[in-house]
């Protein structure tokens, strides 16, 4: 057990090679794209809306199709079933998400400069936590919207949860929900972090083998 702990500490205190550092810089710069690309899209189809009603979710705003008109139309429909309006002020995530992503980008660049495995592991842990928490927050928001219906609504529907990923039939609407380019960028950053960590481990083993051979 002591040997495993010693080796783990040695790995964490080892230096990253140039490859992982470059990947960290690329990952940090890639996060900038999340400020201009949508993270998620929800599209609703019904006989009266054959072209669909679309809503894109960014890190800091909601954007409806047709110049924002689709969100207004969705809110009209929500009124009939007693669901509260989709309003940006209800999405507290818009207040902190851009800042957290910016902080993660700075930490990635710091890790590239600092060049230790420990700094990389710290960023990986924070990134995973941020990703999981963001998904949970989005899913919980969808749950709240579909389960806090007004009892005095003109049209009665059973409480529901819009789909997080995929398709769901809600009344006469077909609702589709899928990640968009911004989420794929986030996933790509996660892949870069894993690759950087693997390369760091490979470099650590190579250095140890070289030292053991007396090279």
Number of domains: 1
Uncertain parts: none
Total number of helices: 6
Query: Care to count the β-strands?
Result: 5
Content of β-strand: 5-15%
Query: What's the N-to-C terminus distance?
Result: 28 Å
Name the CATH architecture: Up-down Bundle
Q: Helix proportion of residues, in percent?
A: 55-70%
Backbone shape = elongated
Question: What would the CATH topology be?
Answer: Butyryl-CoA Dehydrogenase, subunit A, domain 3
Mean pLDDT: 89
CATH class: Mainly Alpha
Radius of gyration: 23 Å
**Topology order in helix (H) and strand (E) letters:** HHEEEHHHEEH
How is the largest sheet built, in terms of strand order?
3-2-1-5-4
* Major beta-sheet overview: 5 strands, antiparallel
Describe it.
The chain has one domain: Butyryl-CoA Dehydrogenase, subunit A, domain 3, CATH 1.20.140. The model has no long low-confidence stretch (mean pLDDT 89). It has helices at residues 2-12, 18-30, 69-81, 93-114, 117-147, 181-212; strands at residues 40-46, 49-57, 62-64, 166-170, 173-179. It has a five-stranded antiparallel β-sheet with strand order 3-2-1-5-4. Helix 2 packs antiparallel against helix 6. The protein has 215 residues and is an alpha+beta fold. 19% of the residues are buried. A hairpin with a 2-residue loop joins strand 1 (40-46) and strand 2. The two termini are 28 Å apart.
